[in-house]
Inverse folding.
């Protein structure tokens, strides 16, 4: 079912969502830390890179499929972990998971989801579980076990949040997850983002990550790496993959855009583990640039969330399909039939 | 016959055309793919380059004439292939051809022209034929034969359009070529740009281009090259020339401006075939920069089209004459009498 | 006591102060010399630098404390010398000193303070004395003796003001310190900034600074160094420290932002004396960048002044506490527990 | 006698002049060629350069005096040749010459002046004569003889105007010098700038300049050099000096800002002849940057012209005095007492 004027791209989905959502809720999802320099730079950095298109390359019969952690996905875009999705739409993460499943991709469920892992599992979507490591080790063990039991196939440990970044839009709006929206991991709603994150441990180290990798019974992905040094540590400490991420510009303001950090990370990793990226994905061409520079796939959070806000499962699915179509066109116009054909030579810095 | 206030430059011709044209039609001609990054960068990239003017060089008796594929043109600006010109003005490509002839230059007729090759031939203009290679080989052969028979002297094969770029202005406006405007190559009007291009083959390769070069009975020019790699392939596969082009920013958004890609292409070609350029030409100084960096001439599409929209044949001619006058002044003020005098030392990057 | 809507950051404190202050007074504190290029660049230059955050570094139990000239401060931000603080709030420098003491940091009192050194000493704050060297040597000796006797622990000699920069906001507004506000060093109020500075010597040399260092009985800090050459001279002539400063953009317009000058200065000094920095500090992350590049601490002038203007001692204290909290968060999110952990590898230039 | 609100800087003088002048006249003086890229870049390029200020340098007893072609000037800013000054103010070039004399500097009279060389000579100002070389050799000889006889001490030959740049503001406004304003060199008024320049020779070469240098009986300065190559030719062909100039952005749009071209020119000249610069001078700091990079002095055209437009001789004088004061302050705050003290190490490119 189409809206009267179907948004033509992700930016228009955001504009439509901004109209529909409560301003405080929109601010929570859209905003970033501090002066939002990194929030904006995540998007602008993609524009500083150019594709180098090859022509007459015979690009009939294209495919956008990729394999991530051994699973084939129909497009190189996963749904990133986004907390509190029922704030955006009553169907929340369950609708998002259904959209991902229909589009042929995976969803990474947030620790701070407003749907249970079991309900998400029931959608049949390929699913990963994002873990904020709490001060309480028992809670961590319980969350991991519950995800594993519910058929989640990867554990995405967030490594960039020893303390919660200060998102001033939320400070000003007083944004609070409504009381009636439950957060299964916390056992309650009626909480601000900062209150929820007070439970998180600031003392986490690579040794802890190694422990998770050894004991979780799931491949562990370190989410939040921005440097070659930490990429090497991820390899050394047993991660199966990492996500080049600055938490969508929501943690430390003034760090590198993720696409700018990707080359040094991919270079350090040298193919030993899988490299993913999130942050700033608005266009299929962004995805293609990330893949050319060494990412196996990307995660998009806000993009499908705006779709969810606009039209629930259908909206989220349409955003994912839009991105898939854009990726396919960008691949063909870059002169490759499939993501495998991309190399760093397909990207250059704008002069 | 002058308009009440004659536009002083190409930008003002565009402004006047935007007033006169139906908004959807204006959007079709003016717009580009995606976020229109490349559309804008085509123009801005010329501004990042500076001319290095030499003085006291004795520049009386100047000439703007150049020889392209053996034909002398009075100015180094050809009319680029632009589809559907009768949408801009009822006299369409025939008026444009007459304007080109009067101005002493050539027209490259689009496959998707709204005038027949024969009618354009009747104007006596020097004429090239732009070919979109269709899935149907018979149609291609027929188009080439018809152009050759009508005295077209070059076949410009578009190589950057295995699929049509997504031009969101058209998505939003629903722009459709009116039913009463016929498109001879398709045998009908009443079609959107995307529908027309569905007939094009996504599987074209350099081998196909080589086949055209061997069989067309016309010199073949590959239009849409942006890299040194593809420039070398054009040389190897029998092209007589190439056009450094990003399709006016209408195909893959986020690629290099053409003037930024020209040096690597000219360097790779090393004079073995003729190098042309289109995209972003708004000023005579832009033409001079392109020539200094290795182009033999440029093609301008939108510039004469705005003239056509404003005042038919007269308007198109005035734009071409304006560009010729600007080229001559820019040559003289750069310290050369003729295009031959230009070298890469006449151009530098702005600091 | 909170304002109805507590400002969330330093920028909002400035906006609130701009509402409250007389426009001429606001212009005096906010403005800079000439076209205010350097005023703006001091802020923007921090944005051209990025933090390189390390993760999983175990950043529980953080501290923002630093040692400057042997004194431990709870945060690496001192209160910079700002003239005429009673123009911003009736409690002036005394309130500012109390705020500094409560926040655990030091205040550097301006020669052109509107409170006496003795009154500031009575607050118990750690205190430094900024000296404009007057044409009258007796006055200089008197000021130094008075500061030393009042327990000031460092003499900060301003070296960038042989003549007063032309601040055109003041030229236009005719800003004058009100008659009833006394300036102890001058013995009177009712004076424009330019009149006050006419008393300053344009002929000061490094030999004079050496003389102060030998005779003042206090460590001497040279405030206003922007080059490696002058940093070496500061070391050679007996300074105990220097402040990389362009006088908040108020002296020579068109010089380097201080954070851009810091690396060459820190490199030249090579740890032999203490390096401080002022100019453009608006965020905790700015402080962290300065420390990573070699500053032991920074001085902030306008930031606490806006707090003073908004709410006297309480306002100034809240700004200092806000900056301390931001510094702590930026340290933790950069992956260090304390300022000692910072190195130049934590900073990179934005691409 | 001060205006009600005396402009505080050159930008404010321009704003005041724009209020007073006829719009077409203002457009003539303010405008540039084409898209006015170079017009704007002349100003912006100064902002891309920074001064590296040295401190504690003992800058009492400062002086702004320089020696140019053997004549001492009180400030390193001459009045550039500007045509048609009676269009700006009825007292025209005579008032401008008086202002220059009072301020202690020289005026360079335009060939297209609206006052006679003899009337300008009567002011006693140090005076140079700018020559547009006409197609008619007799006219050139007559102009040179008349200038020499009237005590002009240098012949400034404009070398960047083989044809007149297209200034679209004038094309739109139809700006014409009023009939009643005589142009002595042409023997009449009532003419457009383009008509006046049709008399100029496009065929001038370095050999012609050498001829002038040999026969004029005056030192010859080549005005309009932007490259090292032409700077060397100026040296070889007997010029006593050159002006790095792009004709105030009024000839070839899209060339280098003059301050960006200065280093390569000064380097090529290596002190053998005197190097001057015009274009974009709005601040004393601009002058200091030019001197540090190798200019002996600069010429300012629009700046004193705005003063002339605002208040005749007094206005022009005030602008020159304002610039002198700004130069002096910039010298002192850069750490030098006199222009001689400046070196390229006092300037750096902004990061």
């Amino acid at each position: 079912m189409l809206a009267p004027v179907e948004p033509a791209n992700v930016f228009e989905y955001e504009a439509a969502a901004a109209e529909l959502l409560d301003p405080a809720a929109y601010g929570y999802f859209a905003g970033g830390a501090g002066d939002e320099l990194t929030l904006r730079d995540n998007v602008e950095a993609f524009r500083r890179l150019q594709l180098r298109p090859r022509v007459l390359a015979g690009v009939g019969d294209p495919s956008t499929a990729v394999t991530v952690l051994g699973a084939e996905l129909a497009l190189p875009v996963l749904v990133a972990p986004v907390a509190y999705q029922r704030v955006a739409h009553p169907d929340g993460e369950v609708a998002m998971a259904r959209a991902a499943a229909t589009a042929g991709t995976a969803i990474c469920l947030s620790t701070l989801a407003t749907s249970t892992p079991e309900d998400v599992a029931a959608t049949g979507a390929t699913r990963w579980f994002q873990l904020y490591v709490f001060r309480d080790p028992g809670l961590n063990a319980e969350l991991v076990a519950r995800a594993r039991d519910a058929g989640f196939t990867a554990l995405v440990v967030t490594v960039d949040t020893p303390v919660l970044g200060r998102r001033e839009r939320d400070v000003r709006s007083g944004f609070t997850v409504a009381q009636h929206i439950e957060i299964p991991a916390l056992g309650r709603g009626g909480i601000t983002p900062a209150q929820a994150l007070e439970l998180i441990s600031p003392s986490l180290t690579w040794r802890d990550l190694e422990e998770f990798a050894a004991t979780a019974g799931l491949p562990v992905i370190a989410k939040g790496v921005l440097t070659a040094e930490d990429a090497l540590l991820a390899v050394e400490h047993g991660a199966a993959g990492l996500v080049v991420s600055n938490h969508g510009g929501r943690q430390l303001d003034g760090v590198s855009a993720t696409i700018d950090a990707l080359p040094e990370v991919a270079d350090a990793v040298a193919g030993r583990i899988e490299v993913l990226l999130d942050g700033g994905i608005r266009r299929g061409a962004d995805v293609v640039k990330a893949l050319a520079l060494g990412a196996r796939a990307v995660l998009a959070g806000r993009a499908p969330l705006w779709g969810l806000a606009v039209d629930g499962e259908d909206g989220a699915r349409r955003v994912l399909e839009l991105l898939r179509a854009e990726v396919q066109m960008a691949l063909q116009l870059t002169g490759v039939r499939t993501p495998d054909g991309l190399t760093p030579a397909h990207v250059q810095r704008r002069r």
In short: Chain A has a mean pLDDT of 96. Chains A and D do not touch (no CB pair under 8 Å).
